[in-house]
Specification:
251 residues, alpha/beta, TIM Barrel, 10 helices, 41% helix, 17% strand
Length: 251
């Protein structure tokens, strides 16, 4: 029997193993390109699929998750942008609390609304402190969340926010520059945050090259998430995965 995903994430963190996740927005894929993505991801030994988006206006969420589950054994983690983005066919769900903002709806309000559905889903629920970092351009996540992103050069604010999230009981910290960000989160900020928390750190947004993915891992990221760059060039999956998995494992 497979270990629960969170247990696996913690185990990898303790061993110094880095993970690569492909983010899929159900609004931007169909059966044909999903087949290609799944095949590439399997060949490249991708660790996780994250499925979700800020909007998700199509009805393809369940079908997308089911297709992945039918075609491969890569775990599927939901990355929901709203309470409606829950699929019982996935393996786990990031229960996101936007700790970088001051919008009460995304700190707890939508969680109250979604709690019965999430509880009944049977999914592995992973409470996640979600931190939106300024990526140099307006992004869907910053617009939809109606919350000001953390300044990209304020490492201490990011550090204290992540520490607070962990002490409030979050099991993961997810720092995101947002889809379409002009710049990724700096290595110095990642390093600052990674040095002060004991839970896995996920980094996403603006990562467009294998080199950037590698440097983010070296700085302390435990999981690298790439979506937008792969939508434009699916062949990047192999190079990104190799870069992330190239980080030496701690002894």
């Amino acid at each position: 029997m497979l270990k629960p995903i969170y247990h696996s994430l913690m185990e990898k963190k303790q061993q110094g193993k880095k993970s690569f996740a492909v983010l899929i927005d159900p609004d931007k894929v169909n059966d044909n390109n999903m087949e290609q993505l799944i095949e590439l991801a399997t060949e490249s030994k991708v660790d996780y699929f994250l499925v979700g988006g800020s909007l998700v206006i199509s009805n393809y969420l369940d079908e997308c998750v089911q297709l992945i589950k039918q075609r491969c054994s890569i775990p599927v983690i939901l990355f929901p942008g709203s309470p409606s983005q829950v699929s019982k066919y996935a393996d786990a769900l990031l229960y996101l609390s936007l700790i970088s903002g001051r919008n009460p709806e995304l700190l707890i309000g939508q969680h109250v609304v979604s709690a019965p559905i999430v509880k009944q889903s049977g999914l592995e629920i992973m409470p996640t402190g979600y931190m939106v970092i300024d990526g140099g351009a307006p992004t869907t996540v910053s617009y939809i969340s109606n919350a000001t992103p953390l300044p990209s050069d304020k490492n201490e604010i990011a550090m204290c926010t992540a520490m607070a999230g962990e002490m409030l009981g979050m099991k993961l910290i997810y720092m995101d520059a947002g889809s379409g960000a002009r710049r990724a989160i700096s290595e110095s900020m990642i390093q600052k945050v990674a040095s002060c928390i004991d839970i896995p750190l996920i980094i996403g947004g603006g990562i467009t090259s294998p080199e950037k993915a590698y440097l983010n891992c070296k700085a302390g990221a435990d999981v690298i998430v790439v979506g937008n760059a792969i939508e434009k060039d699916p062949s990047l999956i192999k190079e990104m995965a190799e870069a992330v998995h190239r980080i030496p494992v701690s002894v």
